[in-house]
Write the structure tokens for this entry.
Amino acid sequence: MQRPKGTKDRLGEELASIRHVERVMGDVFKRYGYEEVETPAFEPLDLFTKKSGESVVMQLYAFKDKSGRELALRPELTAPVVRLYINQLRSAPKPVKLCYFGNCFRYEEPQAQRWRQFLQSGTEIIGSARAEADAEVIALSDEVMGELGLSDYELRIGHTRLLREVLTHAGAKGSAQDPIMRAIDSREEARLRAELDRAQVRAGDEKLLRSLVALRGSVKVLKQVEKLVAGLPKAKAALKNLHEILEHVRSFGVEKFTIDFGIARGLEYYTDLVFELYVDGVQVAGGGRYDELIELLGGDPSPAVGVGFGIDRIARALLKRGMIVPRERLDCLVLPSSEEMVSECLKIAGELRRAGLLVDIDLMGRKLAKAIAYANARGTKNVVIVGAKDLDKGQVTLRDMDTGSQERISRRDLCEKLQAGKGS
């Protein structure tokens, strides 16, 4: 039987890389003061349709349960975490800093690096409208990539409010802006052309919008932006906010980034700062500020900013670079020299495991020579051979599988000996 289309089995080096990425991220999240939370794999359908509309259902695994409730497998984790905040944490001291890991599901055509089930992690800061919060999320993202050894990643930073203020000036207001923002994010010229025509954006406003979207580069491009939006006070305020965020980003020690006003993000709930991270041209993370989402989902108005990471893609980037995480080797395999020694082997294995060592036993009843060959195939560091004559003297035989050398040692000293060689 084949696995479902758009899914994958994870094992071996790939799974080891994924677990490594999760451990590194978890350590960074803790250092920044985030508390881990976990949400259900499925949520009420309207949690995901309130902002995006009913058309988004086509991209979801949506269904009715046996009581007729409309549910959906979560396509992302920000909205579920916001729902958790509204239900249980709205009275907590601000800001509330949360992190998470989990599988997400989207019903779309599988393609390179895009799956119907995928692993996501992320962080959210709820309750702070200050530019320092935006900057911290970027700094945290930078530190994650650095800790993983992916310091050659590309960080692109934009600001959706700047674009939306230009669209407002052009006569496209509220939800009428969303199709245009999605078209900008797609970077498809024909799609953008169609949406601008549909919204009847004037030629002058279109020229201004296109000029902004095309701007990419260092902080020097912000001088050009100042000239372009000189007549739009609210757009100037958005630009000032971006200046402040970037100042704090540099204070955190992040110097390598690209200003890119072509970033609009695929989710409409972003309101101000947006940013994306790329490795080898593949997007591996993205986030921004979403000050309206909490109120939209039924909570009291509250500012918020966050980032989501694509764990599968990051793990794949590590493997592509040959940054393979070594699988932890067994400290030893305990083998009986005869059937009569099996019970004693089980006792020894239990003692060593309780001491924190990685220990296995032969569960196939192999002859000793074949059991040692099995240990070699497993990549085990050592083999402990338990024989009747040795045991009468209170000893066992310890064989180093890397060198082939072996020695008789006291059973009482076995655990200490193995622990001493654990780091080697």
About this structure: The chain has a mean pLDDT of 92. Residues 12-320 form a domain with the BirA Bifunctional Protein; domain 2 fold (CATH 3.30.930.10). Residues 12-31 form the longest helix (20 residues). The chain has two domains: 12-320, 332-420.
